[in-house]
Amino acid sequence: FGNTCYCNSVLQALYFCRPFREKVLAYKVQPRKKESLLTCLSDLFNSIATQKKKVGVIPPKKFISRLRKENELFDNYMQQDAHEFLNYLLNTIADLLQEERKQEKQNGKLQNGSIESEEGDKPDLTWVHEIFQGTLTNETRCLNCEAVR
Q1: What residues have CB less than 8 Å from 67, skipping those under 6 apart?
Q2: Domain containing residue 30
Q3: Tell me, what CATH number does 38's domain have?
Q4: How far is CA 48 from CA 28, 40, 42, 44, 90, in A?
Q5: Residue 147 is assigned to a structural domain of this protein
Q6: Is residue 138 included in any domain, yes or no?
Q7: Using alpha carbons only, what angle is made at residue 46 by residues 80 and 88, rounded to the nearest 5 degrees?
Q8: DSSP H helices in 1-149
């Protein structure tokens, strides 16, 4: 597949993040949606989860192909940055879930797995936000007086 170790590293880490894996696997059982990075990821995770062998290799061909179609940055055989890929993947999944939720609201349906937005102009938070969003705090402490800035 070319230099895809950046992708494999991120996919392995996300697969072993239980809350994320469970949400992605649950997405597979929903009524079939148009192919997207999330449906391909769900298919890949399902292949891993239902694998009978204890060890082995599952090539992420469909996922890599979809990734290359959706983003020209990854449409080559060059090495990429795993951090950039992780951010892209999580943002893409969150955007997709928000768009689906918006369409469901317009159709009069609501789906589990998202948090209601308190303000109408803010986008709805998704399970991606629930799992990965946080607040980064930084403090500087003086070594002499221990004052915090």
Answers
A1: 7, 37, 40, 74
A2: 4-108+125-132
A3: 3.90.70.10
A4: 13, 12, 10, 6, 20
A5: no
A6: no
A7: 30
A8: 5-15, 18-28, 37-49, 61-70, 82-106, 127-132
**3-class secondary-structure state, position 77:** coil
* Element holding 114 (H helix, E strand): strand 114-115
Q: What backbone phi and psi angles, to 5 degrees, belong to 134?
A: -160, -170
Q: Tokens 């890929």 map to which residue?
A: 85
Give a yes or no: residue 139 inside a domain. no
Residue 140's φ and ψ, nearest 5 degrees, are -115, 125
Which pLDDT belongs to residue 148? Answer: 84
The number of distinct structural domains making up the chain is: 1
List, for residues 70-123, the tens digit of each pLDDT value. Answer: 887 777 766 678 888 899 999 999 999 999 888 888 777 554 544 454 445 556
Residue 67 phi/psi, 5-degree rounding, is -55, -45
Q: How far apart are CA 103 and CA 71, in angstroms?
A: 23
